[in-house]
Each structure stands twice: as C-alpha cells, then as structure tokens.
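Morning. Coffee machine broken again, so started the prediction first thing and wrote up yesterday's gels while waiting. Chain of 221 residues, entered below exactly as on the submission form.
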Amino acid sequence: MDQAWQITWGRFFQNDVHTFMDYLSSYEPGKELAHLPTAEEVKRQYPNPCGYSTGMEDGMILGGAMLSLLSDRYAVTKEKDLRERAAEVFSGMRLSVTVHGVRGFVARNVCPEDQKSTYINSSRDQYTHFVHGLWKYYHSPLASNSAKAEIRTILSAVADRMIEFVIPENDYDFCRADGKRCPLGICRMWNVQAHEAARLPMIYAAAWDVTRDERYRKQWR
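Came back before lunch.
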C-alpha cells in the first residue's frame, strides 16, 4: 500500500494543476506524463470532446476518489501531512469547475501546459466522484473553514446546473460546457441504469446537506 501511495503521487499527480492523470507513457523520471495534449490541442478538442485517450479524461473521478481516500485515511491515522495533500487535491478540483467560467460544469481535467484549457464534455461518472469527494472532505477535519465555504458555493453551482439542464426537454442531460447535449448519453442523469439511479438525488442531497437550502432538499426528495 505504501508503494502504491508513493507511485500515485510521484507519477500520476500533476503539480501544475493539482490533478491526477490517467496513465503513464514512460517510466523515465520527469517524462511519465509526456503524452499529455498541448493547450492548442485541447482548445481544438483534439482528439475528441471528452479527451479520451489523452490521459486527461478521468481527472475528477480520480480526484474525488483520492479526496475521499484522504478523508478516510486521516480518520484512521491522523497523519498531519494529509491536510496539505487534501488541500492540493481540492485546489485541482476547484480549478476544474471554475477555470472555464461555465457555472456548475465539472470539466474532466485541466491542461497542465496553460493551466486553463479543458475538454467540453464531462460525464455523470465525473460528477458522481467529484461531488462525493467534496462532500467527504467537507465533513472531514482536514477541511478549513474557507474550504468549506468554497465547497458550499461549488456544490450549489453544480446542483443549480442540474436543476436548469436536467429536464425532459434535454432528455435529462446536463449538457456540455457549450450548452449542447452530449451525443454519447454519458451526461444523462435520469432514466439511467439501476446502479446510476441515485446519482442525481445524491447531488441534490449533498448540496442541501452543506447549505441547508430548502430548494435542494425539495429536489432531492
């Protein structure tokens, strides 16, 4: 476990944007993530709007899972350095939901080259782990009061996007960053498979839990 921990942080974590990338293309130190797309490629949405096969496609799944893991690990070990680790992961997740200026849109990852370019298509998997990770962090002693305030703002924005976009007229799709429906079906939040059925209520419940805004409780119920 310790070896896996060191490899995860040493090879997959990108310090420029504080997010985790998906896979390695080299074991040579400093070149593990040399395959990542350039900012120009991301702006062209090359090779596809999801960033599939780039190494940037699952940053919020990985970030949310790690933030949850950090919260659980601290509950068991009380290691002091986990506070800084969690703050780093949170900063990368915050960047992914704010850097593009589209309120409530959770980008999969952020291009390390310019620290701002993102792919325009996300997925319900990205949102699921993003929200769960933030919610776990919010209830952990690792989160500062300022981080908690930011999480309240972020989860409110995500829930508001769901209220606006996840409607019958959009086939319950939260849509891409450009406002267009996802052609792949991976952004639909309702009328989904059984193992995905609780995800939309979960988002509303998490937003209500941290804000106590009755609008989100109503949507959750």
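The mean pLDDT is 97. Going to sketch it on the whiteboard this afternoon.
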